Amino acid sequence: MNSNYMDLNGSACGICSSKEYVLLFKKRVGEITFEIVRCQNCGLVYTHPFPKYSEERYNEYPTKRYLENEKAYYSFYRPILKEILAFKKKGKFLEIGCSVGYLLKLAHNEGFKVNGTELSKNAVKASNVLLGKGRVKYGYLENCCFPDNYFDVIAMNHVLEHIFDLSKTLRQIKKKLKDDGILFIGAPNFNNLIVKILKNRWKALRVNEHIWHFKSGTIKKLLTKEGFQVIESKPIGPSIKNIFLAIRSMVKKESFLNQNLFHRLLIIQWNILYYLLNWVTGKIGYGDNMFIIAKKIIIRK
Ligand SMILES: [Zn+2]
After folding, report:
1. Over the stretch 224-262, which tens digit does the pLDDT of each residue have?
2. Separation of 142 CA from ligand 1 center, angstroms?
3. In terms of domains, do 176 and 244 share one?
4. Is 8 left (phi over 0), alpha (psi -120 to 50) or beta?
């Protein structure tokens, strides 16, 4: 076993703490085989053993790739902002794990006062160039010293599935969010047809990074347990533009360019088929991504 990638202390369900699980399938990454398992008590799907957090890996974050494709990445973030605007149109906006700050830039352009937190030091640097010094802080939410009951919007896009202590994070979010604030979560959706058909060949199944593989039902269980009420939950499929960008970025990768012509053609063919399936399943309501909007449950005394 490779201890750089695996948490050898074992694993347990992030919602109910049960250690009873059933194996769904396995996925090999390099020399390591991870198991994808489902909690027998609450149904949460997770990676076993847990992939390990390491600061060096966050420093390998591909900031350069994001900066080189600025325009393209805005097309990923626009639908998220549109979703948030349907519930909140102004106020203080925090993004946890804000990468190089593209969603925050769009929110700023809409008139929100924006802040971010991020664990990659080079992404923090890049986001502060984009948004102005000090807008984005390095570290976890609990260490970033924001006042309680402060934010109108807290957003996390493709972050929750990486977080080991879900309860601790959601308790912090609840503290920092105003009573009428909203929480936006974007995450891979395990309830998709690709994972049912292709199992471990689902592209969003990044087992060496993702601890949890949520469905709308398990995310709702988690949020309810932590005092939130889900007010919107929807599966999202890729747009044609996103698919084009994904294929364009794939053909620029070294692992692709090192192949001979025959293999390159095979890879392109496979990817076109994959994304076609991805697009169709998204259109019929089984997209492999999901948007969740939740608000705090307020108990009035
Ligand atoms: Zn469980």
Report:
1. 999 999 999 999 998 888 888 888 888 888 888 898 999
2. 25
3. no
4. alpha
